[in-house]
Amino acid sequence: MTARRVVSAAVVGSVVEWYDFALFGLAAALVFNEQFFPAGSPVAGTLGSMAAFAVGFVARPVGGAVFSHFGDRLGRRPALAATLLLMGVSTAAIGLLPTYESAGVLAPVLLVVLRVAQGFGAGAEFAGALVMAAEASEHRRRGLWASLPGAGVSGGILLATLVFTAASALPGFQEWGWRLPFLLSLAGVALGLWVRSRLPESEVFERQRERGVSRFPLMEVVRRQPRSVLLLFFATAPYGAMGYLIQVFVLSYVSRTLGVPATVALIANVVSSAMAIVAGPLFGLLSDRVGRRPVFLGGAVLLALFAFPMFRLLETREPVLIVLSVTVAYGIGITAMFAAQAALFAELFDTRHRYSGIAVVREWGAALSSGPAPLVATALVAAAGGASWPISALITGCALICCTAVVLAPETRDRDLDEPVGSGAQVAQDRQDAAAVAGRL
After folding, report:
1. pLDDT tens over the chain, length 441 residues
2. Which of 95, 129, 199, 399 registers the highest number of CB atoms within 10 A of its CB?
3. Which letter, b or e, does each residue of 409-426 get, where b requires 16 or more Cβ atoms within 10 Å of its Cβ?
């Protein structure tokens, strides 16, 4: 029962976090260019709003380093409460900002400041939720349990899209209606804090605390497990870029470049997120059966093969084909990778610095690739005169980098999270598992 409570709390926090973060992406694609970055050129306004979107990712590595440090030293619970509170308050404050018309240049400055605060809080939220879920689960079902916060991410994106779509139907959406989804974030924060306040600390962490915690977990993980850090960085950075190209850039591309009503792209995001909620746990369960690497590689190969056909489908301007293309790319390809990497991340790092290891890999990857991806894509399409082939090539290249990194990573399905990676007991267990697999073959 405790494991279910822990995972439930991790999922609720992920929903709140990614509701907040996805909401900014939707508004950056459809609202902020006019409200905060007016310019003579529509492309310049879009570039300004996408730049504000990217700024949040710059703050994420700093927030990840700070909060994961305390998560590895003091416990998972206090760090998760702090990140959730910071995320929610900064998101709600965005809904109260003055626009460029009423406050001039102060308006975009305040927007960027709050985006930075939002990114600072987001820097360790999902990493902590993933760690809590993985450490609470029985290892034979760790892939399934660890994938559930990822389903919470899709749930947050779905909720943000539904709320934003409903708000966009209001007569005064451009003037004041866009603010309502941001203000609603406070309700989610209150629920998340209440749920998490009732949780016990991770038992795996408590056992590690008895053995001794690291003084500087971030420095320790880089020094002791540099190969894991590098491999997971090159697995997750291109993956994050692809995810935001599909969920954020495509929204802007379909509505502003192709001239399709924004509602169509929003519906595509709703359907793909709903698919991800269902498919994520299934892919996590599959990773418990066949391993983390095959599931991750399957998603990456699908995206590499589908990158060019996806944009051909988008360019038909047919609503059904637009929804289908986004659902295949995100609901299946991205989701398979996301589900498999959850347990893989937790299993590749020791408990002493697990939180810090996951945070540094995820957030530096996000800062260097995920955040800038929609901005880079917007500039590439503008330079190519509206052609989409540079974006298809970018997605294909990202997918191939992910494949290479995961092929070089070890399979971790049966690791004991209490045993240090590379320890005698863990090596013996790995050999026993390998012998069992060979016997089955």
Report:
1. 467 778 888 888 888 888 887 888 778 777 877 777 766 555 655 666 667 767 777 888 888 889 899 889 988 888 888 888 888 888 899 999 888 778 877 888 888 888 888 888 888 888 888 888 888 888 888 999 999 988 888 888 889 888 988 888 888 887 888 899 999 988 888 888 888 777 778 888 888 888 888 889 999 999 999 999 999 999 989 988 999 899 878 888 888 888 888 888 888 988 998 999 999 999 999 999 999 999 999 999 999 999 999 999 999 999 999 999 999 999 999 999 999 998 998 999 999 999 999 988 888 887 888 778 887 888 888 888 888 899 999 999 999 999 999 999 999 888 888 777 754 444 444 344 434 433 443
2. 129
3. bbbbbbbebbbbbeeeeb
Rg (CA), the chain: 21
Looking at the domain assignment, is residue 209 inside a domain? Answer: no
Tell me the two tokens of residue 77.
């619970």
- Where are any strands of DSSP class E within 29-134? none
Task: Give the number of domains in the chain.
Answer: 1
CA dist 252 and 384 (Å) reads 16
Extract the tokens encoding 133.
């879920």
CA dist 41 and 231 (Å) reads: 41
Supply the CATH number for residue 376's domain. Answer: 1.20.1250.20
Distance CA 395, CA 418 (A): 37
Residue 124 lies in a domain: yes
Q: Domain range spanning residue 57?
A: 2-196+215-420
The CA distance from 36 to 57, in Å, is 19
In this structure, is residue 202 part of a structural domain? no
Integer Cα distance of 72 and 43 in angstroms: 44
Q: Answer for the pair 152, 368: CB distance below 8 angstroms, yes or no.
A: no
The pTM (predicted TM-score) of the whole model is: 0.81
Q: Which two tokens stand for residue 336?
A: 């398979």
